[in-house]
Design goal:
The chain has 407 residues and is an alpha+beta fold. Helix content is 53%, strand content 12%. Helix 1 packs across helix 3. The two termini are 50 Å apart.
Length: 407
């Protein structure tokens, strides 16, 4: 028994030994061994806890359980007298009325958006004319005043203008001046992560023919909705000059759960058929599969047509059944679709030139810098805490699992 206790003492983490109090002489050796054995069990438990917290599966299960506890009732409501509960019900009825007023507010906001869309449209039409070379802006329209900190001396400006003039003349001699702004919308798409993730290499030649995107709101008195209209110049891929995507919206609380109302929600969307030129449908691809006959052993090659990844699948979203129930894959596709449609309407169409130049992207990045700095600070604090932890192993953390590296 004494040998086993001595072995446990040898395995005890030296850092944990700091917590061991000095034992007075009158205490027996058996009492001391009992206390040390208890500390050994404590140290082993701590090491086991650290190992468990480094297991992604255990962490995921723990997080799922914690998520289930968030927002759980404290039991206070059940403890209230009946007369107080009645008054709380009155407050909830008032809250339902608030939700209905909020819904009306968003309906009026939609009407206001429709009104101002008519004011924006002439400017967007002129933007489209410049992009597709239907209109050449004047010198005055092309003059852009730089920020004060970017202004140069008059002599420097003249020098740069003269240099630019010489370079332009040289370029004019080498090749013909391009019309409008080539690949305007394709560049916008490629500059925005949310849209570039949808793009495939075979989509780009088609999107070079995209001339404009417009947002069209539903008419007054009609159910709330908006449409995205994609205008194409004549091309070799399809005969459509206009592709549309319509999003149906609702701004009213759900009778079964009125407190969940948080503004207008997209209830569904519909695309449009694309009249592909023969052999140009990039949303489908042909694959060949070899099949072996079970009895004769002969092999034949079968050709199948299967869906292909493409931005133009955006115009054929999954149908939402009347029951509203979808499988997980369809739900994920629709959720991403709604996010993209809303982003095109709210950000891309109104600020297209800034996404073309990249300035809007820099602004978006600035929104995340502060959070990133805070996260870095938090990580630094955590690292400091880990180094002070007697169970912390820097070698182990320096080599994360393969799954983490892939992410």
């Amino acid at each position: 028994m004494a040998d086993m206790d001595n072995k446990d003492q040898a395995e005890l983490d030296p850092a944990d030994m700091e917590d061991v109090e000095e034992v007075e002489e009158e205490e027996t050796g058996e009492d001391v061994n009992s206390k040390v054995s208890g500390l050994v069990r404590l140290s082993s438990a701590r090491q086991l806890t650290v190992q468990m917290m480094q297991n992604p599966q255990i962490l995921a299960a723990l997080q799922e359980r914690l998520d289930g506890l968030v927002g759980s009732p404290s039991g206070y409501m059940e403890s209230l007298p009946k007369v107080v509960k009645r008054r709380v019900n009155a407050l909830k009825n008032l809250q339902v009325k608030c939700a209905h007023i909020e819904a009306k507010f968003y309906e009026e906001v939609h009407e206001l958006e429709r009104k101002y869309a008519a004011l924006y449209q002439p400017l967007f039409d002129k933007r489209s004319d410049i992009v597709k070379a239907a209109y050449e802006p004047t010198e005055e329209e092309c003059e852009w005043k730089a920020d004060e900190e970017e202004e140069l001396t008059v002599s420097k400006q003249e020098e740069m203008k003269e240099k630019a003039k010489v370079e332009e003349e040289k370029k004019d001699e080498e090749k013909e001046d391009p019309k409008g702004i080539p690949e305007f919308w394709l560049t916008v798409f490629k500059n925005v992560d949310l849209l570039s993730d949808m793009l495939q290499e075979h989509d780009e030649p088609i999107l070079k023919h995209l001339q404009d995107i417009k947002v069209k709101f539903s008419d007054p008195g009609q159910p709330m909705s908006f449409s995205l209209e994609f205008y194409f110049e004549p091309n070799e891929f399809f005969t459509n000059t206009l592709l549309t995507k319509t999003y149906k919206m609702r701004s009213e609380p759900d009778e079964s759960d009125p407190f969940s109302f948080d503004g207008p929600e997209i209830m569904g969307c519909t695309g449009c058929p694309i009249d592909w030129t023969k052999g140009k449908n990039i949303t489908l691809k042909t694959i060949k599969k070899k099949q072996k006959h079970k009895g004769r052993g002969t092999v034949r090659t079968v050709t199948k047509t299967v869906p292909n990844d493409s931005f133009f699948n955006f115009f054929t979203p999954p149908d939402v059944p009347e029951s509203g129930e979808l499988d997980e894959d369809s739900e994920a596709v629709l959720a991403a679709d709604f996010e993209i449609g809303h982003f095109i309407r709210e950000r891309i169409v109104p600020r297209a030139v800034l996404y073309f130049t990249g300035e809007a992207i820099e602004d978006d990045d600035d929104d995340y810098d502060e959070e990133g700095e805070e996260a870095d600070d938090e990580e630094g604090e955590e690292e400091g805490e880990e180094e002070n932890d007697p169970d912390y192993d820097p070698k182990k953390d320096a080599n994360p699992p393969a799954e983490c590296k892939q992410q």
